[in-house]
Amino acid sequence: MQLLIEKIKNEGKVLSESVLKVDSFLNHQVDPELMFEIGKEFAARFKDEGITKILTIESSGIAPSVMAGLQMNVPVIFARKRKSLTLVNDLLTANVYSFTKQESNEISVSKKFLQEGDQVLIIDDFLANGQAALGLAQIVKEANASIAGMGIVIEKGFQDGGKQLREAGYKVESLAIVDSLADGKVTFRQDHKVEEIAR
Ligand code: G4P
């Protein structure tokens, strides 16, 4: 998605060979117009999948998911990472291990929001090792609902989450795929294609 790629080029900060900071529009401050376009793009890419619900994880998955839900006219559920005062009974849960943070979190969703027969689109802001997406997929399975696909705002193509999820058979649509953060530069997968065409 060209608009997103331009935004990353202009505002993204390469923190290390594996971490991209995008807190000016996605992870802290949020750019509503960009999120609106992201919502439209997800809606277009999954228009034939009969989506009935969107499932994401707090916190940064919420903004793009709500915009996609608005376009697709479906509810958006976000899995909680911390125990909630009101969310105590009848929970669907999964354990998510973060390689980045080296910690495990139990994520949870109330059973009442996911039913058998739901066609669920899983959305997340980043795809790194795929653990969050796999945890969300487990929750959908626990509800006996179906996973219609996974929409990712930024995939880090040099980590193996995307490969793992596609090999597992999921339709994964990433709006920007970063192939490398080496030498302080962001290289997009699309850049390779453009270069190949130019040659
Ligand atoms: P995984 O789910 O794909 O296995 O990812 P991982 O555990 O490595 O990532 C843990 C957290 O770090 C997630 O956010 C994820 O979105 C984020 N993350 C991973 N790589 C990057 C990166 O290069 N840049 C940025 N900005 N974030 C990255 P989280 O802790 O759940 O944060 P939030 O959703 O509450 O903002």
Automatic annotation (TrEMBL):
Gene3D superfamilies documented for this protein: 3.40.50.2020
EC number: 2.4.2.22
Binding residues for xanthine: L20, N27, K156
Assigned keywords, A-Z: Cytoplasm, Glycosyltransferase, Purine salvage, Transferase
InterPro entries the UniProt entry points to: PRTase-like, PRTase_dom, Pur/Pyrimidine_PRTase, Xanthine_PRibTrfase
Enzyme class label: transferase
Keyword Cytoplasm found: yes
Residue sites binding 5-phospho-alpha-D-ribose 1-diphosphate per the record: A128, N129, G130, Q131, A132
Catalytically driven reaction(s): XMP + diphosphate = xanthine + 5-phospho-alpha-D-ribose 1-diphosphate
Major location (coarse): cytoplasm
Pathway connected to this protein: Purine metabolism; XMP biosynthesis via salvage pathway; XMP from xanthine: step 1/1
Location relative to the cell: Cytoplasm
Gene Ontology molecular function terms on file: xanthine phosphoribosyltransferase activity
Function statement: Converts the preformed base xanthine, a product of nucleic acid breakdown, to xanthosine 5'-monophosphate (XMP), so it can be reused for RNA or DNA synthesis.
NCBIfam families, per database record: PRK09219.1, XPRTase
Subunit relationships: Homodimer.
Family listed: Belongs to the purine/pyrimidine phosphoribosyltransferase family. Xpt subfamily.
Protein name: Xanthine phosphoribosyltransferase
Taxonomic source organism: Cytobacillus purgationiresistens
Gene: xpt
